[in-house]
């Protein structure tokens, strides 16, 4: 049997032991094998049917079996604290984070950019993770946000309440808020990016005039089949709650779900399967055509957060400036590079780097990229061996104290736009 089921937002049914799933009743008086029925609700009970997300879990013990939570201080860079200074409109860029050693994924996470919080139900954070140790004897749950992991080097083997999800560079994983999980490292180390989404859950964007196919297709998403741990050794449960980390003792592994059914689950997606849409005539379409997932806001068409990628693709537009043009955007943009090079930056933006261009801050290609694209003899050209991403948000993103203190923060980033020549009007006078 495959370790995964395919589809996005579907109702799945899966059991690790035959007969563990009840038939016709979600919470029977006597579940099979003495299991406990427990519902995990990702939305309010009364959310519209199309938006309602919940799953029924049939487990060895209720998750209520744990001690009182105490403050957890083992992951100091997980703090999304903002500096006590006014927000700045400056463009910022960070070089790749130095390799992290001797830590697991939770203790090795650094939140770099933030807006909103769980108490408002809106906003995101963007950060780095780095780890060289498995999570042993402990699990994590984020009560505030769903988590989007973007591996850059090294795979992550997520052991979750719903089953196993192995995610490699070039793939992404989304873990729902409130779900318990641990991370193992098949390659011995892993580094990448992590996004916390406090707003509406990520979903596929509407396709509009594109039609019924394109971008990320439902069939290419994968969710785990049931798998469980029957482990009576003591564990810790680390909980991010209202922006702070807490820890409680659990007398057993809480990853003990024998069967589950529902439409709330972790999932993964291979970015290489993205069906890129672009022009075959002229002009440069908006980057919204590269949206993989969106978290909508209460304003139609203006996202709480969009996850956008810039994958390998053909460029064929005639009489067209093909890299991203100079622009100022109402949305705020955080950008990272998974592999290769980004076509609007000739240097300074290596895999693992991070940049921030907040609302209405002017940005675009650097001088070398602009000149090369302007002078090019336009022929069909494939941008290959690259994968960049962007997290857009309707609200400004602020760098955290950790980000501003990071030695990876580049000084003089503004200088990449120095040296552009003045346009030549000849004898034309205003």
UniProtKB/TrEMBL annotation:
The active site is at 284 (proton acceptor). Fe cation binds at residues 327, 333, 363. This is Homogentisate 1,2-dioxygenase. Gene3D superfamilies: Jelly Rolls. It comes from Glacieibacterium arshaanense. The keyword Lipid biosynthesis does not apply. Residues 3-271 form the Homogentisate 1,2-dioxygenase N-terminal domain. PANTHER family: HOMOGENTISATE 1,2-DIOXYGENASE (PTHR11056). Homogentisate binds at residues 342, 363. Keywords: Dioxygenase, Iron, Metal-binding, Oxidoreductase, Phenylalanine catabolism, Tyrosine catabolism. GO terms for molecular function: homogentisate 1,2-dioxygenase activity; metal ion binding. Its EC number is 1.13.11.5. Coiled coil: none annotated. It comes from the Bacteria. It holds the Pfam family HgmA_C. InterPro entries: HgmA_C (IPR046451), HgmA_N (IPR046452), Homogentis_dOase (IPR005708), RmlC-like_jellyroll (IPR014710), RmlC_Cupin_sf (IPR011051). Residues 273-422 form the Homogentisate 1,2-dioxygenase C-terminal domain. Its cofactor is Fe cation. Belongs to the homogentisate dioxygenase family. GO terms for cellular component: cytoplasm.
């Amino acid at each position: 049997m495959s370790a995964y089921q395919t589809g996005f937002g579907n109702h799945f049914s899966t059991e690790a032991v035959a007969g563990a799933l009840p038939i016709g009743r979600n919470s029977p008086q006597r579940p099979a094998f003495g299991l406990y029925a427990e519902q995990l609700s990702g939305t309010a009970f009364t959310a519209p049917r199309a938006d309602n997300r919940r799953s029924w879990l049939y487990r060895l013990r209720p998750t209520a079996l744990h001690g009182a939570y105490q403050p957890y201080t083992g992951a100091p860079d997980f703090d999304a604290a903002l500096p006590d200074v006014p927000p700045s409109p400056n463009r910022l860029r960070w070089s790749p984070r130095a390799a992290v050693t001797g830590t697991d994924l939770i203790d090795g996470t650094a939140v770099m950019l933030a807006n909103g919080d769980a108490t408002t139900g809106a906003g995101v954070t963007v950060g780095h993770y780095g780890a060289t140790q498995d999570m042993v004897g402990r699990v994590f749950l984020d009560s505030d946000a769903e988590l989007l992991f973007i591996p850059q080097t090294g795979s992550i083997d997520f052991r979750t309440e719903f089953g196993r999800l192995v995610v490699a560079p070039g793939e992404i994983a989304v873990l729902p808020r409130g779900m318990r999980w641990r991370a193992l490292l098949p390659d011995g180390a892993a580094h990448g990016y992590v996004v916390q989404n406090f707003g509406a859950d990520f979903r596929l964007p509407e396709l509009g005039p594109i039609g019924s196919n394109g971008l990320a297709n439902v069939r290419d998403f994968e969710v785990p089949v049931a798998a469980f741990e029957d482990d009576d050794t003591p564990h810790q449960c680390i909980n991010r709650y209202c922006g702070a980390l807490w820890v409680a003792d659990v007398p057993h592994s809480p990853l003990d779900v024998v069967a589950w059914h529902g439409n709330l689950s972790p999932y993964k997606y291979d970015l290489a399967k993205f069906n890129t849409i672009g022009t075959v005539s002229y002009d440069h379409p908006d980057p919204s055509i590269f949206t993989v997932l969106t978290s909508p806001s209460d304003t139609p068409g203006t996202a709480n957060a969009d996850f956008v990628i810039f994958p390998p693709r053909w460029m064929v537009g005639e009489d067209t400036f093909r890299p991203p043009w100079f622009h100022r955007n109402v949305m705020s943009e955080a950008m990272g590079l998974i592999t290769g090079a980004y076509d609007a930056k000739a240097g300074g933006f290596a895999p693992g780097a991070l940049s921030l261009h907040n609302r209405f801050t002017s940005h675009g290609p650097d001088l070398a990229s602009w000149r090369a694209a302007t002078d090019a003899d336009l022929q069909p050209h494939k941008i290959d061996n690259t994968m960049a991403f962007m997290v857009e948000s309707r609200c400004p993103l602020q760098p955290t104290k950790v980000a501003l203190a990071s030695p990876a923060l580049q000084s003089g980033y503004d200088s990449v736009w120095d040296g552009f020549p003045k346009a030549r009007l000849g004898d034309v006078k205003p």
